[in-house]
Amino acid sequence: MNQEKTKTEPENDSRREFMMNMSLGLGGLAAIAVSIPVAGALLAPLLEDKPEVWRAVGSAENFPIGSTQLVKFENADPKAWAGTTAHTAAWLRRESTDKFIAFSANCTHLGCPVRWEAEAKLFMCPCHGGVYYHDGSVAAGPPPIALRQYAVRVADGQVQIGTAPIPITNFSDGQKT
Amino acid sequence: MSLLRKIANWFDDRTGFSETILPVMRHPVPPGAKWAYVFGSATLFCFVLQVVTGVGLSLLYQPSSDSAFQSLQFITSQAAFGKVLRGIHFFGASGMIILVGIHMIRVYITASYKYPREMSWISGVFLLFLTIAMGFTGQLLRWDSNGVWSSVVAAQNLGRVPLIGTALARLLLGGDTIGAQSLSRFFSFHVFLFPALIFLFVGFHLYLVIRNGISEPPKAGRLVDPKTYRKWYDDMLKREGVPFWPNAAWRDALFSSLVILAIVGFAILIGPPPLTQPPDPSIINTSPEPDWYMLPIFALFALLPPATESYLIFFGPIVGVLALLVLPFISNRGERSPIRRPWAVFGVVCVVVAVGSLLYIGNRAPWSPQFETKPLAQSVRFRDPKLERGASLFYKKGCQYCHRIDGHGGITGPELSRIGRTWNPDQLKVQIVNGSDEMPAYGGMLTKAELNDLVTFLSSRK
Ligand code: FES
Predict the structure, then answer these.
(1) Are B302 and A127 inside 8 Å of each other by CB?
(2) Rounded alpha-carbon distances, angstroms, from residue B428 to A94, A143, B131
(3) N or C: chain B end with fewer CB closer than 10 Å?
(4) How far does the CA of residue A53 sit from the closest CA of chain B (Å)?
(5) What residues does ligand 1 touch, defined as CB less than 6 Å away?
């Protein structure tokens, strides 16, 4: 009986509607307020900017001219709990007395680690048979573009490599236009 | 009245158990829904198994990039029953993926997705992809070098998405490179996010079963007409329905128990996948290989012509998902019997054969060069020093990684055991010097003498 009455009273109707809208609005606000920090945690990798840092990989004498060697270094911003995952490898070649090139070890096809075959003078990928010439250009197989390179410099007799993100091959890379 | 009875009555009175749950358990189902209907529930039981063994593993596992590997070694070799626990979780995942597949095929072949069960199908499609996502992230949590490199491969796949590819890849890895955040992310997805979504969708999926009833076994010529179907279904249930519990449920319980026992059996007999090298991205002598259930996808990507690859990596999944989602809308009435829907059956056979062959090829991985092959000159004696030189060049220059001679070498390129019969020295020379799309041009990398030795060696293969 009572219920019937309240339902028909227009004053109460508008009041209830107002309260309902308000609760929806406040609920939405609360949801947004909570979502922002969570989304922040999810998107954090896009928000933080990691500067290039130089990592020494050995003194220049260790690298005979013409040799291509695997060098290992730490990435730009290793956290305490990164452990061995902070390591990165690159193929470092000494072209001449003061010219070094460092190739990324990541195949440009799907990122598998390429190996330098010294006798054949080729980089070969174990995953799908991608092969690169000694200058990093594609020799055979599915890789769409040449091996990426890291920045290298020599400072105080030390060879240093500039850290960089894992190279990601994009949709348009290597598309013939 | 005994005390126990009293307690039970009190409990029932306060909770309403027998008023709400029992009718659901006893809801009538169509008769004749026999063994074909056990796969959905078996998938659910596998999921429960995964939750339970997952909780067990999480008691022992360290979700940190730094120490996850050590904790896995500990679980595998030291923790009590740790190895079996890992094994059950692995085979449970395999079982869940197989059962999801069979359940889906059953639903498709008997057209159970038609009116009024469209939403069952759609929620099922989401569950299918969540299951695959669980399989993949689970493999990454086995944080060895395979896990590390598989996440790089996955990031590269995402990188092919137009415009936002790089951002997606970074989001997956948790940064510019593999590092401290990578494993935390996979752990969060695998242990919190995806399971929560699965619970949600499974709840919805089951609720729909109660609301719309399980589909009756199809009969040729009995068409689904949205106008009359619900009434017909209700009448049929009233006439001949049997209670789900216990008349139909015992098959589900029996089959699921067998499945779980089989999983435990595999776990004990075969054990979990072995750990490979530590999670160190600077260890490059490794060839990442996904677990078997990801192999067909991996193989497909390997087989795609490179020119179309970016398109297929991106549009393939989108088209696939959309096709699955619209299916119940483009065909939601009419015939359900597989006998009258030969094309549907044919389609399923095609898909099964395709996935099976991709799995087979993926396992053989003919596109992967074999770096472990031993130099031919070691096992074969050559009297002619020229031939011997050619044979050792064949290995040293990397030919043998991809070409096979007398059982030695890879299978990426053609077998060359008898190449001298069909190719003359000039043809061989041209091919070696110029290469092709699949083979490097060796022109710049061989001296004249080396080229001659190699050609002489290959021509002698008759
Ligand atoms: S990842 Fe190197 S060829 Fe595919």
Answers:
(1) yes
(2) 34, 25, 50
(3) N
(4) 13
(5) A 107, 109-112, 125, 127-128, 130, 141-143
Q: Return the DSSP state at A174.
A: T
Of A70, A131, A168, the CB nearest to B159: A168
Residue A46's H or E segment, with its range, is helix A10-47
Reduced to 3 states (helix: H, G, I; strand: E, B; else coil), residue A72 is strand
- For B392-438, the pLDDT digits (tens) are 999 999 999 999 999 899 999 999 999 999 999 999 999 999 999 88
DSSP B109-161: HTTTTSTT-HHHHHHHHHHHHHHHHHHHHHHHHSTTHHHHHHHHHHHHHHHTS
Mean pLDDT of B96-112: 96
Give the confidence band of B128 by pLDDT, cuts at 50, 70, 90. very high
| Tokens at B162, concatenated | 């137009």
Label residue A175 by pLDDT band (50, 70, 90): low
Closest-CA distance of chain B to residue A153, Å: 20
- If you ran DSSP here, which 8-state letter would residue B191 be given? I
Q: How far is the CA of A124 from the centre of ligand 1 (A)?
A: 9
Minimal C-alpha gap between A129 and chain B (Å): 5
Q: For A127, what's the count of Cα atoms within 13 Å in the CB-facing half-sphere?
A: 29
A168: nearest Cα among B312, B289, B306, B165: B165
Residue B384: its pLDDT value, please? 86
- Which atom from ligand 1 is nearest to the alpha carbon of A130? 3
Q: How many CA atoms are closer than 13 Å to the CA of B179, on its beta-carbon side?
A: 21
* Closest Cβ opposite residue B278 in set A50, A84, A113: A84
In this prediction the ipTM stands at 0.89
Please provide the average confidence, as pLDDT, over all residues in chain B.
93
